[in-house]
Amino acid sequence: MTLQYNNMKTDNTSREEQEDQPIFEKISVQETSSFAEPEETTATWLEAEGELVIDVYQTDKEIVIQTAIAGVKAEDLDISIENDVVSISGERKHPNPKEATQYHCQECYWGAFSRQVILSEEVDHDKAKTSMKDGVLIIRLPRLDRQKTHKIEIEELE
Predict the structure, then answer these.
(1) Which of 20, 49, 90, 98 could form a disulfide with 77 if both were Cys (CB 3.0 to 4.6 A apart)?
(2) Residue 120 gets which letter from DSSP?
(3) Is residue 151 assigned to a domain?
(4) If residue 130 lies in a helix (H) or strand (E), which one and from where to where?
(5) Which residue range is the domain that position 77 belongs to?
(6) pLDDT at residue 103 tops 90
(7) Residues 49 and 111: beta-carbon distance below 8 Å
(8) Residue 72 contacts by C-beta under 8 Å, 6 or more apart in sequence?
């Protein structure tokens, strides 16, 4: 969309006459499309996606992410770490997808879900561990113990 406007010309009219006139002489709106129309409107990136509820805490040695993820098998999960972001995604499959139902109440989310967690400090990606027991996923990320200050000795040259 292009928005175009032209200011009023300034001429020798008095201030009172200018106040009675509109600020803009002309406003025209033109809609232009610089993109080709998509062939199909089945955009998967617009589909609804659930979000996990998580707890994140830290101990002296690690950052821990835990989430209740009942009904999801380990092979239906994808967990990755890139820079300082942990991504958890997967799919909770409906146990009876073909069964005709008339819900009285539907609070469970069935389908794809994802969650990203931005870490507050550096972790050792290579030593990260995950476990799942009784529908609770736990991700343990060892904290990197970097020295804040490092003393540098001065070499004397002769």
Answers:
(1) 90
(2) S
(3) no
(4) strand 129-133
(5) 48-96+107-142
(6) no
(7) yes
(8) 90, 91, 92
